[in-house]
Write the structure tokens for this entry.
Amino acid sequence: INGHAFAGGWLLSLAHDYRIMNVEKGYACMTEIDIGASLTPPLNALIKEKLSRRLASKMMLEGCRLNAKQLFEEKAIDMAVPKEEVLSQAIALGEKWASKASLGVYGQMKEDLYQEAARALKYGKVIRASL
């Protein structure tokens, strides 16, 4: 994330495995509350899976803007680095974990880990697993 990540841009970043953000410039926020728009159940499920309840509430209900340092402290991003390191750190992280993905189970494990969001995004609605 090399700059601002508002609304859909922030949601797109949440759909990724890792988030590395420019510490020198940019904010993330959910502006839907300010324009009177609601989120679909799949997008709500994604937010619930990736953010703490407290942070999700702060971003969704207050439209709070957070910088990279704050997002890192909230565990919403994995790294807050200088602008010139964003791409190199992303590549290094991808290379570090690429061998795990090549084993063929990475996608299934992610789907299991983020079950509600994965099902919601796949089927367009929230489908809770029965116990």
